[in-house]
Design brief:
253 residues, alpha/beta, Metallo-beta-lactamase, Chain A, seven-stranded mixed β-sheet, globular, binds zinc ion
Amino acid sequence: MPEVIIVGSGTGVPSLKRASPAVLIKTHQTNILLDSGPGTLRELLRTNVHYAQLDIILYTHFHPDHISDLIHFLFAAKYEPAFSREMPVFVGGPPGFLNLYGRLRGVFGHWVEPPKQKVSLFEIGPQGAWIYDQDIKVTAFKTTHTEESQGYLLEVSNKKIAYTGDTDYDEHLTEYFQKADLLICEASFPESHKVEGHLTPVLAGQLAAQARVKALVLTHIYPECDQTDILNACRKVYQGPLFVGSDGLCIFV
Ligand SMILES: [Zn+2]
Ligand SMILES: [Zn+2]
């Protein structure tokens, strides 16, 4: 039974209540991290997962609140005693990810170049599929946020777990996570402060209802949204099991 842990339910706004975006999916054998905003590797320790125990890291887009701990990860992975592995950590992102890595190398040089047997970087495009093993398959789908932004559908131990990353409303999204066992959906701003490129709790609920997902967890919550009744706003349009994400929230899928 996969376990989903909201490592950081917040955004790029520094907050003592909500850490930067990151989600951990744990199976019997595999730890998958989705996005890693600033401070994620430290927050991970609260879930008893050390950065060297990650197997897969996937990035949804290149905004600093989602990707900045990649730099920390690459640097820490060079630290020999703590990081010894039989298989590399597979680190993937949308098309342009390898180019971004090249630019990071241009800035930080060999300090962000861990040996290839430790870290393997790759790109996965929208509608692309990537198979890790017989238990884990990843499909990417385009989201409405930045040029490269995409979400992921993870088929893990026969369960379907979808993660939107950052996105605005687009009914076509629901094609990718129809009847998912869990939808991890951004809900950045309240209705009264809707921002282009992001969802509200109501719009997240609409996507979940249209896709008839079996459970919904809201995350990527800005302070403006925290001042509203997130649960009841979403509840008006989505009747299934519903969680308002909080740091450390653990859901057995
Ligand atoms: Zn974001
Ligand atoms: Zn973003």
